[in-house]
User: Fold these one by one.
Assistant:
Number 1:
Amino acid sequence: MLEIVDVSRRFGDYQALNCVSLHVEAGEFFTLLGPSGCGKTTLLRSIAGFEQPDSGDILLDGRSLLSLPPEQRPVHTVFQSYALFPHMTVADNIAFPLRMAGCNETEIRQRVAEVLEDVRLPDAGSRFPDALSGGQRQRIAIARALVNRPRLLLLDEPLSALDAKLREQMQIELINLQKEVGITFVYVTHDQGEALALSHRIAVMEHGEISQVDEPSVLYSCPDNRFVADFIGQCNLLDGKVIEQDGERVRIALAGLGEMTVPTNEEIDFLPGDACALTLRPEKTRLARELQCGDDEFHVRGEVHDMLYLGDVTVYIIEADGVRIEALLANSAPGRTRLFEPGDTVELCWRYDAGHLVR
Ligand code: ATP
């Protein structure tokens, strides 16, 4: 439905977007994720029409949007700052775009009531924005953006001004709302947890380019490169060298740790001597004072260097032959809050296919 084709944008010497191509399907919850300055807002503003690309094209339903001013694009944007008119009631705020479009008052009343239902604030119409909480104000901003049924809703970090608990609640509501209204959402965030929780697909951006586009579970378990592995969740990046590739298996030497055989990465042809990294999620490891390891597991002995108690889990940093590996233990067993202390000798292992090999 939405196609971004080779879009570039430069500000002075800075290449904010470099030949970005993407497609978004109708009804999709699609997220642009990346660190500050990677270009995601510039891309969103280009779709909205607030920014004009230097080259490339942006098509909606096969028609280029570039010649249309923002107000003529069937697209609405919800900003972090809500942008509600403080002197107007909630109903008037929501009705504003409909009045601008010349709708009659009966239709306006009906559509305002419908979107207030959609955002679960059916009785808020006569209130003023100041009398609402941050979460409620953001819901009204979303209601106003939805009221004239855009083809595409663009959301620029809409939850970042809310506290953690309210944000989680709003995330669930956003997922349900998007399902109910069926409108395509393009969502910008730098919060990887939020992106994983909300999206059907995520485009991870780095320095104005797309690093990987995939479903959340694929991004998490099979990152294409070190940047994505490191940016999405916690991840050990174990440096190594390729010894040989044999069909679907690659023999690698991990710096400081020794040799192991891992499944190949079908996207990459590895040659003997190539530098590589094994991306290993902390929760894919087993950690104990002593471990019985199977033939299909890689075994390491080390020392607890640091620990971080997080309530539901404890993160342990294990040092083995100069390499630091993060491991995770759930604190679900009764009485188990501090199993190991810094300085304890421990054993760590993971299955041959627990990690994912990248360059
Ligand atoms: P953030 O999460 O911090 O908003 P972002 O990924 O959305 O970051 P953009 O806002 O798209 O990043 O900005 C990308 C780069 O382009 C940044 O280095 C920014 O300083 C620069 N930039 C954006 N807009 C302009 C502008 N109008 N003039 C000059 N530089 C700009």
Note: The longest strand covers residues 297-309.
Number 2:
Amino acid sequence: MGCYADAPVILRGRDMASCGYLDDAYVVIDGGVVEAFGPMSGYKMQESGNYVIDASERYVMPAFCDSHTHIVYAGSREGEYEDRIAGMSYAQIAERGGGILNSADRLHASTENELYRSAMRRVREMMRGGTGAVEIKSGYGLTLEDEMKMLRVATRIKEDAVIAVKRTFLGAHAFPRAFVSDRDGYVRLIVEEMIPAVASEKLADYIDVFCDEGFFTVEQTRRILERGLEYGLTPKIHANELAASGGVQVGVECGALSVDHLEHVGPAECEALRGSGTMATLLPGAAFFLGMEYAPARRMIDEGLAVALASDYNPGSSPSGSMKFVLSLASIKMRMTPVEAFNAATVNGAYAMGLSDTHGTITPGKRANVIITRPMPSFAYLSYQYTEDLIERVIFN
Ligand code: NIG
Ligand code: FE
């Protein structure tokens, strides 16, 4: 699956239905990269002898590119999960000072080493689940010091992890308590102090804003993104999760690499995305966990748009980094075919994190990040059998 001599950078609309599939094939890996692939009939054992893994009856595919996560966090939020079971909504919990602010309090009380250890545990668990590249956001700091602390942890992970890591500055994730009645004051802090500091220490690759009802307005989002761009940070934003916020349009206007969530999108948002270089990244794990509406993936793909899938792994709205389960949700809840979901989590996920040159497909010269499944009767079986561990082996580099 996902084998191309000449890999696509982005798959849109109908093109998402095919996937570079070869039956009875080989892949040669050398020095951390894919050297060659082809039909088994053309395979020649090298003189020195190769280390051979027999993948008969199995599927071999590129590792997942999880382009949206919040895996640096302290503690967990199952208390709020119980509150929601009792009838409160995610928005109500946030209004009473829980949610992201709850995680910010816990993060403030944690050391860099503690955060590093717990986040690395999550990275290892995700790798075991087939993830070969991960984007990590800040956003539970909400002060200059704590945002920098989070990004330093993400930077250490980037240095130490075997898989590729991208870091995103999300100071504009929520308004901290000190600024509840001076929201523009917090935006000024982000624009005047946080962005320059993050950029001068080279702690981030991207900039994000939670542009949604009750969070950052379109105007505030634009100010923050424009400032980020001045400092070389490309936008990748949270948009239209809670309402048709205008986030998609402002993201596209600011040249965002991706706009993420998109549970609330209609014709105007699709029109804005069409022909742009902005990926629509859908996070069905959050809709599942919060019991909210799913993004209209079927309609978006039928209209010719490109869609990526990511886990949104975080303690409040998606406490799971399982990309296999994300594929199942995409098919069961959003009517994406198994192959469309696969493409969304590999080729299009790589695009949404700026890794198209090295990740997302099995292509000579790209990183040898490969999943080998257990024996399966068909590719659809992978997401159909939605809780079974069907990933037998992962190879990174
Ligand atoms: O992507 N929507 C905003 N941010 C996160 C949730 C963060 C949290 O609740 O801790 C998300 O769903
Ligand atoms: Fe998120």
Note: Residues 68, 70, 238, 312, 314 surround fe (iii) ion (ligand 2) (CB under 6 Å).
